[in-house]
Amino acid sequence: MEPFTAALLVICLLALLGLPIGLSMISGSILYLYMRGQDMGLVAERLLNSMFTGYVILAVPLFILAAELMNTGSMTDRLLRFCNAFVGRFRGGLAQVNIAQSVIFSGMSGSAFADAAGTGRIIANMMTRDGRYTRGFAAALTASAAVIGPIIPPSIPMVLYALVSGASIGYLFLAGVLPGLLMAAMLMVLVYFQSRRQNFPVEPPVPARELPGITLGAFPALMMPVVLLGGIYSGAMTPTEAAAVAAFYALLISVVLYRSISIGQFYRALTSGARSSIAIGMLIAGALVFNYVVTAENIPQALRAYLAQWNLTPLQFLILVNIVLLLIGAMLEGTAILLIIVPVFIPTAQALGIDPVHFGVVAVVNIMIGLVTPPYGLLIFIMQSITGAPLRHIFRDLVPFIAALILALVVITLSPDFVLWLPRQFGYQG
């Protein structure tokens, strides 16, 4: 058996047996080196060199910690009250609040899972209280809205894409703003028509005299994206330093201003963030080692030569990538796709003259849609555990939301100028 085939079989077998995919990839890579007669110490060398020189990787646990601190404190509650005060009074108002809070929270956490498990948990429970919305609809909408989280900056998946592609994190963050807002607009329009057709409830309007107080209470939390993006694009901070500032800012606001975090809660936020960071860290480590195997086998170059025989145009190639990533995203975890599958396509994209920032946004949007695509979308199972809704009801209610997100993906794919407009305003030459 060929070493590469044997490595793939071992990775798949161990993953099916329940071993974390990161450890499975490391095991398969060790087997590959053994069968090739190479020094198996290359695994440790690859890990050490990649992890210790990968300064950008530090942004991942810091953004995760910032999200944990926001969910532990009262920042998310204040943001929800702010959203409800302005859009909750319309028919289907809580559904619109669900989408609005994802847009705002996405500017702070960079994680779809943090959005779904934090503010998403709260708003889903509000929607299902007293039977105002079905549990299936609340779960489907909350999962779909959480997809926006990693598109609007900051974004953990875009940090990982920058790691494997060498693209600028700052420009990737900027490129995600308009696509993220487009996705939110698509969901809001869909909810508007669903609200009229299904006669969703209207929430009691918040008195005008309370709006200044609600806005003032949420103002420190609303300033976090301004602090982060202002620091990055003014040149005062790198994205990794901005992630550290985000975590410190969330802690400072929650402890000093809101006084909503106890020592015990702070400890639990640290441990929860550490567990999430370790899980992602092991996946990154495994991907870095396995990417060495992929490179040694010349897989990217072979794929590039194979696709060159098809004489694909850039648009045809992007359509092919969309189809492949949407199908794989329905079966595999998003981070693994981003670290293993996407790098294989990057050389071909470069050869076709596709802008790396545009390609990164297209890839990340595809992978995020995969999080809500049956049968294995992780956000579906997170929301099922939160709401207790039967999976068949969630799947049924997800269909129109997935269609709206794919429609947004089509616009993003066909309109690189739309995606790159904001980065170009800040000096991007692509």
Characterization of the model:
With 430 residues, this protein is mainly alpha-helical. The chain is 77% helix and 0% strand. The protein has helices at 3-16, 21-36, 41-53, 59-72, 75-87, 93-106, 112-117, 119-128, 135-146, 156-165, 169-175, 177-198, 211-222, 224-233, 239-257, 263-296, 299-308, 314-329, 334-351, 356-370, 378-387, 391-414, 416-425. Helix 5 (75-87) packs across helix 13, helix 9 (135-146) packs across helix 21 and helix 16 packs across helix 19 (334-351). It is globular and about 75 Å long.
Task: Give the helices and strands as they follow along the chain.
Answer: HHHHHHHHHHHHHHHHHHHHHHH
Number of domains: 2
Number of DSSP strands? 0
The percentage helix is: over 70%
The secondary structure category is mainly alpha
- Low-pLDDT runs of 5+ residues are none
Mean pLDDT: 85
The largest pleated sheet is described as: none
**Principal-axis shape:** globular
- Share in β-strands: under 5%
Radius of gyration: 22 Å
